Structures are given as C-alpha cells and as structure tokens.
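Entry for the shared binder. Reason: the reviewer on the internal report wants the predicted structure included alongside the sequence.
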Amino acid sequence: MRRQLVAATALLFAGIGAAHAQSDAKAPPPVVVIPSAPVKPVAAPADPARLAVAQRVVFKLVPEGVYKKMFATVFGEMTDQIFGQVGEMPVGEVAKLGGLSQAEAKALGDVKLREIMEIYDPAWRERQKRMMQAFGTGMGDVMVKVEPIVRKALAQAYAREFTVEELTDLDRYFATPAGAHYAAQSLAIAMGPEMTKAMTEMMPEMMSAMPVLMQRAEEATADLPPVRKMDDLSPLERKKLADLLGVDPEKLEDDAS
C-alpha cells in the first residue's frame, strides 16, 4: 500500500502542476504559451507588417524579466498554498490513483494525506517548500534565457491569428493605462491566489475522475503488444540499446518497479 500511496501522490502533484500551467486569466487576449488543444500545423511566415506589430504587442504581454519575477514570488506562494490544501485531502482518494480498490480506499476512512506524510517524513512540508523555492529560483534563471524564444513564437502566432488592424487595436489598447496594467500583470494574474484557490477547489472533481481516465487509457492501449523486457530483445537490439545508453550490454536489466 505504501508504494501505491507514493505513486498516487506523485501523480497528484504532477497533475497539479500540469493543470495549473494550462490555467488562464479571463481577460482578452489570452496569452497561451502551452496550448491545451491540438497544435495547428506551422503556417507560412507571417506578413512582415503584421509581425512587426505583433512583436510590439507580445513584448508588452511578456516583458523582459517577467518569468523570473513570477518564479521568485508568485510561484512559491502558489505551490505553498496548493501543498497545504492537498495535505488535507483524504488519503484514500489519493491512493486510488496508485491502484487501490474502491473498497480499500473506503477502509482508510477520513485519514488525511498530511497525517500519513508526517509519519513518513515529519519535515515534509518544509522539505516541499524548500524544494519548490529552489525549483522556482532555478526556473527563473532558465526562463531569462528562453524568454526571447517565447516572445518570438508568440509574435508569430499573433501575426498568424490577427490582422494588422486587430493587432494595431491591441497595441493601441496596451498603450492606455488600463491596457498597460493588464499587459504587465496578465501572466501573474493567471498564477495568482484566486486561480490557485480555484484549482484547489477543482481538486476533488479531478481526483474522482482520474481513476476513470486511467482506466480509459489502459483500454485504449489494450490491443497493443506489451512493452518488451530485456529477455525479449535480440542480441543486436541489446547491443544497440547499450550503445545508445553508453553501458555494457551485459549490465542491461529491467526496471525492478
């Protein structure tokens, strides 16, 4: 059961991050860096005139240093709040993600995840807080380097999606006090306390849906052959795999998990 609980907890925390990364502030126009819908094929290069205006618009939406600032402040507050509320969730609901049956989960009663974690690791909250702080600082440094890539991609997307007239309207709006305020804060708003609270309120619904979704995923792949083990590989395949991994073919073995 401990293994199931640990696996489920890891899935839960990973799900929180993924879901929150796709959350968006409800103000026009949305800044979608990681799309939740299927990505359209990359179109031909945008018209230079449209791209020029799009670049001005995007620079206001993603100003220099915005991600570093967000990871240094908002990210830490967001994750601390989420971990605090997740700790109060019934451990049975969490453990179902790791394969616990409905009856086994029900037998756990109202035991909270926090109560279990405090036994395994009395410093778990402080450990998570420090890990997230270190992660946030590191990601802030990384984002400084990738911000130009984000701006370039968004400018191309905006130039494809909007006409010159629409882009000019956006640029004009972002030059107003209200528009400048929105443009500068839109990303931070999407990760702010209101959105974090909404995500935690959604968690019970997400938790109840997860076992069904996992079952659907298993059913969707049921007709595929099982993942091969090392004994199923030919000597040539083992050698190729070992060369790719830079190890001795004789030392290749299946994951014990």
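Summary line for the report: The longest helix spans residues 124-161.
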